[in-house]
Backbone:
């Protein structure tokens, strides 16, 4: 019997090893079949496995020094040991706090706005549907982004706080985590592709167990956007476009690789700073802008101006531009919600197809004669 014992141990070990190898091989096959469901967004990856999803948020702010990985799993689902070090979020969520108005449309599109329990500075929210929840007391004001009321958040005890950072120093985020609150960092605001921003709806689809609905909604936005682009595919870019306005002593123009510039390119216009490399904006002097854009025939002015008189009061020199003289000035920020929030800032990132149509109507009005602006207004 003693002679047989080593053989029995070896045989048992062999079959255990074979079983492990089979399981390991099956897991590898599953992993190979799992694909990232994100097509346009550069800072988001969602890979769905059988029992869980892995969400990776990269480049959440300028010069970010790390990526953030989150494991979304349903109750009692098994997650591999190798992923246990990452923040695990049980889904679907029953309650959430978000901290950017750009998230509100995603919740409403997926019909989960009733799950929102808190938001910083609720006056910024423009949507009538979510404002009704605020007025009813269902959504609490939880302070300011940089000074969230942690005691109130602990009392609300949301399943998840979806927030953002602006640089590598985020003490507020650290304090939230130390308080035992689940936090997910998102970076939709860093996306420069119009469709890339809108695709972040898929994150909320994953968080609320509505992946299919999120994909269907996004696919319709992509189709609508591409149909709008086809309208101008063969049109020349005849509109010579000035963008921005003075802020204190600086005129900020959108750089050529920015979100705004992409719209103007897709709408077939001659944006005067399209060759300015980079994202975000560039600060210029009034003199430099006037020298380059005095003869521009269309001006997209930044700011919530209601009319040309209000615009000229802000700076009398605006009257030197031909676009001002010819009353061809438009802005996208003039429409406000009931408590002063800017509709464009809230809704535009999730509906780039509507933004593009507004630009097309400005640059090629004959193509969308019966279309009414969603965001844009012509200043009279």
Residues:
């Amino acid at each position: 019997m003693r002679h047989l014992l080593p053989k029995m141990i070896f045989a048992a070990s062999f079959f255990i090893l074979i079983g492990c190898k089979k399981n390991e091989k099956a897991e590898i096959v599953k992993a190979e079949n799992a694909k990232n469901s994100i097509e346009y967004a550069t800072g988001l990856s969602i890979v769905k496995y059988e029992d869980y999803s892995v969400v990776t948020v990269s480049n959440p702010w300028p010069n970010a020094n790390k990526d953030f990985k989150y494991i979304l799993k349903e109750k009692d689902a098994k997650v591999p040991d190798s992923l246990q070090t990452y923040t695990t979020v049980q889904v679907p969520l029953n309650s959430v706090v978000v901290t950017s108005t750009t998230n509100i449309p995603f919740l409403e599109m997926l019909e989960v706005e009733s799950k929102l329990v808190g938001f910083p500075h609720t006056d910024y929210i423009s949507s009538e549907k979510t404002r009704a929840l605020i007025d009813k007391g269902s959504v609490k004001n939880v302070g300011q982004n940089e000074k969230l009321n942690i005691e109130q958040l602990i009392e609300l005890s949301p399943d998840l706080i979806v927030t953002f950072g602006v640089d590598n120093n985020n003490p507020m985020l650290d304090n939230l985590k130390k308080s035992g609150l689940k936090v997910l960092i998102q970076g939709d605001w860093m996306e420069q592709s119009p469709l890339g921003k809108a695709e972040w709806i898929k994150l909320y689809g994953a968080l609320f167990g509505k992946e299919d609905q999120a994909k269907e909604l996004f696919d319709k936005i992509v189709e609508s956007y591409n149909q709008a682009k086809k309208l101008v595919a063969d049109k020349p870019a005849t509109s010579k476009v000035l963008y921005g306005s003075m802020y204190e002593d600086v005129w900020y123009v959108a750089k050529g690789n920015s979100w705004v510039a992409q719209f103007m390119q897709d709408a077939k216009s001659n944006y005067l700073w399209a060759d300015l490399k980079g994202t975000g904006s560039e600060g210029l002097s009034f003199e430099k802008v006037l020298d380059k854009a005095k003869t521009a025939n269309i001006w997209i002015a930044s700011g919530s101006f209601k009319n040309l008189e209000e615009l000229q009061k802000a700076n009398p020199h605006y009257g030197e531009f031909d676009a001002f003289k010819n009353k061809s000035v438009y802005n996208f920020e003039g429409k406000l919600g009931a408590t002063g929030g800017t509709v464009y800032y809230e809704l535009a990132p999730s509906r780039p197809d509507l933004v593009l149509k507004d630009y097309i109507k400005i640059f090629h009005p004959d193509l969308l004669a019966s279309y009414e602006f969603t965001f844009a207004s012509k200043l009279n």
Notes: The mean pLDDT is 92. The two ends are 101 Å apart (CA to CA). DSSP finds 14 helices and 19 strands in the chain.
